[in-house]
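Design a sequence for this backbone.
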């Protein structure tokens, strides 16, 4: 992998590595085990490493029509998993959580040979944890993300459920579509670049006090190109199988 890409992705992946040690499983006899496969369906949007959690019904990573919490804002704007990981670790209704170790990159893009477009994660669920949630940033957006909130887990051994997720706008940052306001890996991973280095921090000057809503898509007129970075929903496929 080129050194530049490695450096740009380091901040996105560091928090994901920590999560593997953070989940606190229930006793082995009470656990259910699931394999969760997440597939990027877009042609021009890389995803940050998927973060998934099993939990009770009182927990929501995000809700359409509500304001984004800090964890969702940081994922959607900056690809930063750390605040959401901290929130999950502090929530007694969360059974387990885990993150992938790499982004999901569409086939045909410059680094699709370095990164896959799909990943399968294994996660457990303890007593009362009947739901699974997931989030990833849409890397070539200001505050776009995808995911699923409170998907009902299959109970029977061998049972599976497949759902499809849309692209969402966190409602926290104006959609300038300018590379100067978008995380650096966008340019290298998708192959459309500029002299702007990009940013992995929130710019208060671009703040908006909106709510989570379906993303309007890439409009064009700045650095993002609808024919390259655009998408049609759904953007992600999530399959959950109970394996233990």
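Sequence:
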């Amino acid at each position: 992998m080129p050194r530049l890409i490695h450096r740009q992705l380091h901040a996105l992946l560091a928090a994901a590595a920590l999560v593997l040690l953070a989940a606190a499983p229930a006793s082995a006899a009470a656990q259910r085990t699931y394999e969760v496969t997440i597939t990027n369906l877009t042609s021009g949007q890389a995803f940050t490493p998927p973060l998934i959690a099993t939990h009770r019904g009182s927990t929501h990573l995000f809700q359409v029509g509500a304001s984004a919490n800090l964890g969702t804002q940081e994922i959607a704007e900056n690809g930063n998993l750390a605040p959401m990981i901290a929130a999950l670790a502090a929530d007694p209704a969360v059974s387990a959580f885990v993150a992938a170790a790499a982004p999901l990159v569409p086939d045909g893009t410059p680094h699709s040979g370095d990164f896959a477009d799909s990943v399968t994660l294994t996660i457990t669920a303890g007593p009362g944890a009947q739901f699974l949630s997931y989030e990833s940033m849409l890397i070539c957006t200001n505050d776009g993300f995808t995911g699923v909130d409170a998907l009902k887990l299959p109970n029977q051994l061998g049972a599976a459920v497949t759902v499809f997720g849309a692209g969402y706008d966190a409602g926290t940052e104006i959609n300038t579509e300018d590379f100067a306001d978008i995380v650096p890996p966008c340019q290298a991973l998708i192959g459309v670049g500029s002299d702007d280095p990009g940013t992995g921090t929130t710019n208060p000057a671009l703040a908006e006090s909106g709510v989570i809503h379906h993303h309007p898509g890439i409009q064009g007129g700045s650095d993002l190109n609808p024919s390259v970075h655009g998408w049609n929903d759904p953007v992600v496929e999530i399959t959950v199988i109970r394996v233990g």
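The longest helix spans residues 3-19.
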